[in-house]
Specification:
The protein is an alpha+beta fold and 84 residues long. The chain has two helices and four strands; from the N terminus they run ααββββ.
Length: 84
């Protein structure tokens, strides 16, 4: 099928780079941030939010309240402009 080993190596390298670029393009920074966001509640029924830690959708740090065992991970916190 291929006339030389050089052609075969170039084809394999090209396919590897295409796969690498495809994998990198499927990852977005907001997805990564959403996984690390945590909202903490006062009880198992999630009645009252008592703390949030992570990043908002504008990539500003969010850290307030207390951490409890009643936690939900993910989501994107509302983007609030930083103080001036």
């Amino acid at each position: 099928m291929f006339k030389s080993s050089r052609t075969r190596i170039l084809l394999i390298a090209t396919l590897f780079l295409v796969g690498l670029l495809f994998g990198a393009s499927m990852h977005s920074p907001t997805d990564a941030a959403a996984v690390t966001n945590a909202t903490y509640y006062n009880n198992a029924a999630h009645t009252t939010v008592v703390g949030q830690f992570g990043y908002d959708c504008c990539n500003n740090p969010v850290a307030w309240g207390v951490k409890t065992k009643y936690v939900v991970y993910g989501g994107c916190f509302t983007c609030v402009p930083p103080p001036r």
